[in-house]
Amino acid sequence: MIDGSSLLYAFYVLLFTGVCTWLIYYQYQIRKAMQLTEEALFPQKDQYEKVLTPYAWTEMRPLTKDAKSYKYYNWLTVVIVLLLIAMFYFVFIDKTIQGNVIVTSYLLLSMTNLIRLPASFYLIPNGLILNGFFYPWSKINSYEVERIVKWHSMYGLHEKINNGYCVRFQIKKRWLRPQPIVISDYETFHFINNYLIERGIIQKEAKVKKNEVV
Fold first, then answer.
1. Checking DSSP bridges between strand 127-130 and strand 133-136, what pairing results, if any?
2. Which regions span the lipid bilayer (predicted)?
């Protein structure tokens, strides 16, 4: 019969493996996305200010190794790994936190949610980059567009997004949808919209009021 201690050990091993696997996978995706941004058709140097990202709705920053956000991500990743190693020691060797493994693990998982780079959006010939992840066109199921006009739920959150265009993508075989991005002007949105249409990406009707749908 399996005792409680064995279950705690098994739980922590799964947690340790899962978090480490995620960190490696996310780091791989980020590095791959950084390389692919060199092929980006959009945005160019003078177009970053047209893309507003949640939740502060600030202008999008280039996805590069020199960015402060990337340096912060690397630093926080090191901290998480050190905490995992420390937990491993206290659970399996020192055995001082056996009874608090679940609570400690929950805190650790909460910290991993902080390991996120600011939202990003790039159009490249083979697909698009969303929030540091590359998706080939075959993985994009559809997208929705909403005009952020008065009475829209996002209207008034920030003056920069008022009257802008909220774009949400649906990725195949992914339950959680990526964060939306907002395009601030019609000319830029028109370019993006036409490019997605040319690539055969379906624009689905958003479930909002008629005057909010583009």
1. antiparallel
2. 6-26, 72-93, 113-137
Is residue 165 within 8 Å of residue 188, measured between CB atoms?
no
Tell me which residue of 136, 174, 129, 159 sits closest to 36, measured CA to CA: 129
Rounded CA gap, 92 and 89, in Å?
6
